[in-house]
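Lecture 7, part 2: worked example. A protein chain together with alpha-D-glucopyranose.
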Amino acid sequence: MTAGRALTVLSVASEAFPLVKTGGLADVVGALPAALAEESVRVRTLLPGYPAVLSALEDAQPVHAYPSLMGGPARLLHGRAGGLDAYVIEAPHLYRRTGNPYVDAQGRDWADNVLRFGALGRAAADLGRGADHAFRPDVVHAHDWQAGLAPAYLHFEPGPRPATVLTVHNLAFQGQFPAEHLEALGLPPESFTVDGVEYYGGIGFLKAGLALADHLTTVSPTYAAEIRTAANGMGLDGLLRIRAADVSGILNGLDTHVWDPAHDPAIVARYDARTIRDREANKAALQARMGLAIDPTALVYGVVSRLTWQKGMDLLLAVLPTLLDQGAQLALIGAGDAALEAAFTEAAARHPGRIAVHVGYDEALAHVLQAGADAILVPSRFEPCGLTQLCALRYGALPVVARTGGLADTVVDANEMALATRSGTGIVFSPVTADALAHALERTAALHAQPATWRAVQKRAMTTDVSWARPAMRYARLYRALAAERATQDQPR
Ligand code: ADP
Ligand code: GLC
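Predicted complex, written out as structure tokens:
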């Protein structure tokens, strides 16, 4: 980095809110650049040119052309999209298709994902080495397996290069492909080793990034520790132990403009920590909108989640009798495994007015739910960070969470001692079993039965700093250290 110049970063990802989102990765990629601007870090974000991204791109300028990028002509466009300073890979043969970025309408992975995300890594490495003369990043920051080859290309090709960081948002998704694609990806034969891109006889995109990026981060300190263990390392714990000195856990923040109960256009009554009483109107609105009995006294639990094993949704099904015995209600928005979708839909049909389920993805309804529910349930088996509990804190819906990953790092259990010392922002339970979850529901109901105490916990939740300010400072510090180290390595000797 040259002195006096702002540090520059190329962020590389397969989704970004509000352009394309399947989960928290998009929230992070969409919000972090603005927070980093406050730290004098200039971020440009490289995204695949899905139709939704290309149609949002404004002031597009071509900066680089490929006669062939993974099997077809392509261009790199620079412009603004969804509030981001963006590079977009215009490659119709890879990205011009509607629907989900990863799977087809039948839920099967797109057959050419190896090339679709290989191209993402390829373009990132090219931009990293100055494919756009106007922008030579100090750091290339790759997110998850889809961007995992970016550090690999930069590593195996000669010449000065930017520093590289890979962030693991979820170790469960690894991007594993047959070895026969090595040549099509343009990776050299010498990259196919245990220290390189080889993983269980195939090409591992995430593995490659974990092995070859200068630094690794994950999205909470607890998850950073968990993934080093055989129990939670998903086969990559050995490598993560070897690289332990290069791994940091940096908590996610929340986009506090998108998630702001004082100015949220999606809810009927806006409120802040001093006017929590106004939430009551939002609770009634949620009950009405989802078809729950309008009852101000009923404890309303909310869930906004992918419906998967990771999220412990089967445990929630198992404790529905406890929840109903309490006289509580459940409002759930989610999509995912067909069996879980069916089971929740059936539970709602059996208990009209008490259990309400919206199968599908609905951003605005998620705001209505966070503003109206009394508590938000997050019984995840593992959770790298989790954003819904951060939304819950900000909206004064008490998070009831499993003690794992980022959930353990962001919610303070309101146990007796915590309450005595005026701390505690939610309910934290472990182990992650149906019994422990049922017990957590009992504790939540007991707390709810003490309105003054509940209100005090709500206020603490709402005033917890869940913004990007602190995490952005940590990323900025990390980038500067890595860029400085890289600069010394690239010095001509
Ligand atoms: P993950 O990325 O593992 O799914 P996170 O908690 O980090 O979990 O992020 C999930 C994000 O997706 C949050 O912004 C949440 O509000 C949103 N979300 C999840 N499911 C839905 C849904 N069915 N409708 C609307 N938003 C959803
Ligand atoms: C992943 C994780 C989630 C995390 C999100 C953003 O999807 O499952 O815990 O919050 O990425 O980092």
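Residues 469-490 form the longest helix (22 residues). The chain has a mean pLDDT of 97. Keep this in mind for problem set question 3.
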